[in-house]
């Protein structure tokens, strides 16, 4: 893994592509290709591959964007099923290139498809956007500035202050009369999310985080992704805002970041069934920084589990909710046209705390999911899959293989898993009492 800093470029394919080059201090180039704001693919360039002429860049772009173009146009063979486990469900993605080549002007076809979706989504209902925050007024101000560009597609915007004793959040909201302030004195992200849901009036409820900046069409694309009554939740694409420090690079590339790819995916109950014996990787459905729900689904499956999430067990309150929806026979749709930029933690110490919290919350959520649904795959993941994963990672570390910075977090991850077991046992004891 190339050390930081990495330069990020968003290249617009509707304009002439430039020659690519970088100079110190940049050590790598990460290019995202988009068509009139819609992201279609990416590619990394090492220093040894640069400079690269525009003609070669065009070839790179065509190869990178073909799967996304086919997927967004709904062409046969381009549906992304790579997350499925069984061969019967894991069909080869992007196999039917002839279908894409038969499209006379794929970019025009993409524009027409997105326009059709925008026309249909007017009947999706009203949209409430909720931002939960705690003592980060500067980040919140940037987040709200970005959301202001979406105001035409947002019916109400709520900021839930999870520490109202600190005046910073209220001061930011006070200067924006179109934002509604909600106070939640009980600490915990799930409690803040639930307070926002109770206060929201929209038919659809979307969440983003205070360390995120949304694209101008974000709210519109989320609304359009609710394509039918079976779609209970929607998640979108989360891209890194910057990769200027090693901590940011390791999170994005060593841990996979938040990105779910550039093709839309509909996750239904069959996804849960496919992994019932192994524990469905529901955390791959998206990220809590970019998600939306039909508000009435909470009446059927309940609100966010307040034992999970930041300020409680650590995280995974979002993926546990997606698990509940799939178990109820509903669909969660991932739509990469709904885009946000996430500011990853810059300092190594902050990343260590994040990784510990993620693994603690992950294990605690697996135990909660087992207790709620009696799906033994969740226990199997704790008892077999995770130990096997860490045995391999430990061997790599001892043999000094792989990225040393990524491997340096091994003890932090293991500590998080053990904390998750302890937290799960404590929660189980409280439930019995």
Write the layout of secondary structure elements.
Elements: E1 6-12, E2 28-35, E3 38-46, H1 54-72, H2 97-101, H3 106-120, E4 127-133, H4 137-148, E5 156-161, H5 168-174, E6 179-183, H6 189-199, E7 204-209, E8 212-214, H7 218-224, E9 231-240, H8 246-254, E10 265-267, H9 269-274, E11 290-294, H10 297-301, H11 317-327, E12 331-342, H12 348-373, H13 377-398, H14 404-407, H15 410-432
Parallel strand pairs: 1-2, 4-5, 4-7, 5-6, 9-12
Antiparallel strand pairs: 2-3, 7-11, 8-12, 9-11, 10-12
Helix pairs in contact: 4-5, 11-12, 12-13, 12-15
Short account of what is shown:
With 433 residues, the protein is of the alpha/beta class. The chain has helices at 54-72, 97-101, 106-120, 137-148, 168-174, 189-199, 218-224, 246-254, 269-274, 297-301, 317-327, 348-373, 377-398, 404-407, 410-432; strands spanning 6-12, 28-35, 38-46, 127-133, 156-161, 179-183, 204-209, 212-214, 231-240, 265-267, 290-294, 331-342. It has 3 domains: 6-114, no CATH class; 124-347, Spore Coat Polysaccharide Biosynthesis Protein SpsA, Chain A (Alpha-Beta Complex); 351-432.
């Amino acid at each position: 893994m190339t050390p930081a800093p990495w330069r990020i470029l968003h290249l617009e394919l509707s304009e002439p592509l430039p020659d690519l080059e970088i100079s110190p201090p940049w050590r790598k180039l990460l290019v995202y290709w988009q068509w009139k704001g819609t992201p279609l693919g990416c590619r990394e360039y090492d220093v040894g591959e640069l400079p690269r002429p525009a003609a070669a860049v065009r070839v790179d772009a065509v190869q990178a964007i073909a799967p996304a173009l086919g997927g967004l146009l709904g062409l046969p063979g381009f549906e992304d099923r790579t997350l499925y486990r069984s061969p019967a469900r894991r069909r080869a993605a992007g196999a039917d290139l002839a279908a894409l080549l038969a499209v006379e002007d794929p970019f025009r076809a993409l524009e027409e498809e997105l326009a059709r979706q925008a026309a249909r989504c007017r009947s999706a209902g009203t949209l409430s956007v909720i931002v939960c925050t705690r003592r980060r007024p500067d980040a919140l101000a940037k987040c709200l500035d970005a959301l202001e560009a979406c105001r035409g597609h947002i019916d109400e915007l709520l900021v839930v202050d999870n520490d109202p004793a600190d005046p910073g959040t209220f001061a930011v909201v006070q200067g924006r009369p179109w934002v509604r302030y909600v106070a939640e004195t009980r600490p915990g992200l799930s409690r803040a999310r639930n307070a926002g849901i109770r206060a929201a009036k929209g038919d659809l409820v979307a969440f983003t985080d205070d360390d995120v900046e949304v694209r101008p069409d974000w709210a519109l694309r989320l609304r359009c992704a609710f394509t039918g009554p079976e779609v209970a939740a929607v998640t979108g694409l989360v891209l890194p805002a910057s990769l200027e420090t090693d901590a940011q690079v390791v999170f994005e590339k060593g841990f996979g970041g938040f990105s779910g790819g550039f093709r839309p995916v509909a996750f239904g109950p069959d996804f849960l069934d496919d992994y019932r014996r192994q524990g469905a990787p529901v955390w791959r459905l998206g990220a809590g920084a970019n998600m939306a729900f039909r508000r009435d689904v909470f009446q059927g499956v309940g609100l966010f589990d307040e034992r999970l999430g930041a300020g409680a067990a650590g995280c995974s309150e979002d993926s546990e909710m997606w698990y509940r929806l799939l178990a109820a026979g509903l669909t969660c749709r991932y739509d990469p046209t709904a885009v946000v930029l996430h500011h990853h933690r810059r300092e190594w110490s902050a990343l260590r705390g994040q990784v510990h919290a993620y693994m603690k919350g992950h294990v605690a959520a697996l135990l909660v999911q087992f207790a709620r649904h009696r799906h033994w795959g969740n226990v199997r993941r704790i008892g077999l899959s995770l130990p096997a994963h860490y045995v391999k990672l430990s061997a790599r570390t001892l043999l000094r293989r792989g990225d040393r910075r990524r491997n340096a977090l091994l003890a932090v991850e293991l500590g998080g898993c053990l904390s998750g077991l302890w937290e799960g046992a404590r929660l189980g004891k409280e439930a019995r009492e």
